[in-house]
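On clarity, I found the account of how folds are encoded harder to follow than it need be. Since the whole study asks how a given chain folds, the encoding of that fold should be made plain. For illustration, here is how one protein appears when written out as sequence plus structure tokens:

:::
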Amino acid sequence: MAPVAMRTAARSLSDAQPVPFWLEDPGKPAALPALTATEHCDLLVVGGGYSGLWTALLAKERDPRTDVVLIEGREAGWAASGRNGGFCAASLTHGLGNGLARWPGELPKLEELGLRNLDAIEAAVSSYGIDCDFERTGEIDVATEPHQLAELREMHETAERLGLAGGLELMDQDALRAEVHSPTFLGGLYDRRGVALVHPAKLAWGLKQACLDQGVRIYENTRGLSLDTSGASMAVRTPYGQVLARRVALGTNVFPSLVRRLRHYTVPVYDYALMTEPLTDEQLASIGWKNRQGLADTANQFHYFRLSADGRILWGGYDAVYAFGGRVRAEHDQRPETYLKLAEHFFRCFPQLEGVRFSHAWGGAIDTCSRFSAFFGTSHRGRVSYALGYTGLGVGASRFGADVMLDLLAGERTERTALEMVSSRPLPFPPEPFAWAGIGVTQWSLARADANGGRRNLWLRALDRMGLGFDS
């Protein structure tokens, strides 16, 4: 980083608060009391992020007579659900490329189900009156290097060949810069209907209230400590009590699963983001962006960025950090070296915004698996279901995962449970130090590919052959 760019980036961070912008909202609800006794219910949901909240709400929609309890280790939405970028995508597979590589025969169906899922989220936001700044403005994948432009053209051609190009628009440099002006933009692929933007914490809080309104009993600051059978019930022990339930749905995602055999299938990867102060009218005019789309560049080490309801820019991504041992720790939520890098990249993208300051800087862990999209299953003879490994897609795909978990608990064969994507499982990660070394080599190789015109080295090609590569 050049000295001038470094000084500009450092000055922009001088007032940044080390907390997630979304969770500072004054509308944050009060925490609910912890469980201090023994509860009985038909369905226990463990986890108060999107995955658990959608599961509890959909269970009530399917049958209002179902007695549902939800427990959350801290407060609903405090972790990944309240600190992400707010991109609510229809994709269930992390893009056409990844889906085509893994489930080519199912991809049209997966795309259809994903769009229906996003439509259902929009309908739920409306019907439950959830005030979460929901905007279905779409997303533009942006090319900043010539090889990325060629990759976007190829992706568009693939979508057309598969009959999946509805709502997709290939944009040249002039068309893209007319939408959002950056001297780094060479072109883009605009998905007009497949992405909505939300205030992520408000979505979680709205789902929490919808659950309460439907009769779900929610206990916060109540961590599930163990999962065992107890006669005809499942027993989940908590710090001050326990829950006995006929069925259990696990929405713990990045945190260690109560089903121990699943713990090697996901690893926590830390993602970081910055939020600017509100932009002035003149600053907003200098970049355009009147249609408020979400944006993401298409490098392996990519940035995602969007406007908030009050005219700020969220700028995140690039570094994806795995800490040795794979433990979720609060000290990993802050990483000044990444904030400095992100700030420098921001001003490279938008040099016309020099002088803008960042008000918030934060990080958090997301769960990723070796196939880069969620996987599902049951344990304890079908009495426990789980959905894990969303790899950044959880804002939207968690609702689909909730439906899958409920289908599995009901023992139903549905259009969801019939999918190979649902019945298959990714490869587990190896134990340490092999996981740390392998992830490190992969990240280094992806960075080298970005610097070398997208050319994948022997390591990445070997991962591709084993079904462990990522192709968006």
